[in-house]
Write a structure and sequence with these properties.
The protein has 5 helices and no strands. By secondary structure, it is an all-alpha fold. It has one domain (about 20-150): Ferritin, core subunit, four-helix bundle (Ferritin, Up-down Bundle), CATH 1.20.1260.10. Helix 1 packs antiparallel against helix 4 and helix 2 (about 40-65) runs antiparallel to helix 5. The radius of gyration is 16 Å and the shape is globular.
Length: about 150
């Protein structure tokens, strides 16, 4: 008798959307890893929160993809390099502090959109539940950091 698998295999389009979401997480993670090392002391904890969340989510998404028999991308796309370069240049010109929050919000919207695409692609119910939770975690962090910056 076959054992119960923790995840049912998604359809090809749903798996592709999950891989795209993972790739976006890896790409933004690259920027936050650079940001943490260059952030002003008063902003470092915020950068670390984003880095840690994306690291954990990228790892979990990679594990999901691997369970479905696919090899997750671990190095990211060209956007990983671009994100590192943008953060490095920003640190030289303006520094990395709370003034970067608008750019973070814009960049994170691409990840939120990838969550929406993955959720709309017909994932298995257990994957859908976890993706919703992960999306909520990211949106809550975005809300908290924006509220703290605006004093709300």
């Amino acid at each position: 008798m076959a054992g119960i698998r923790p995840f049912a295999a998604p359809e090809p389009a749903a798996l592709k959307a999950l891989e795209t979401l993972h790739l976006r997480c890896v790409d933004v993670l690259a920027g936050f890893e650079t940001m943490v090392g260059r952030a002003e002391p008063e902003f470092r904890a915020t950068a670390e929160r984003f880095r840690d969340l994306h690291r954990a989510q990228a790892q979990e998404l990679a594990e999901m993809i691997a369970r479905f028999g696919r090899e997750p991308e671990i190095d990211g796309s060209l956007m990983s390099t671009v994100n590192r370069a943008v953060v490095s240049m920003r640190s030289l010109i303006n520094g990395i502090d709370g003034s970067i929050l608008d750019q973070i919000q814009d960049g994170e919207q691409h990840v939120v959109d990838a969550f929406d695409d993955a959720l709309g692609a017909g994932q298995p119910i257990d994957v859908t539940a976890r993706l919703r939770s992960m999306r909520r975690e990211l949106c809550l962090l975005l809300f908290e950091t924006q509220a703290a910056a605006t004093g709300r």
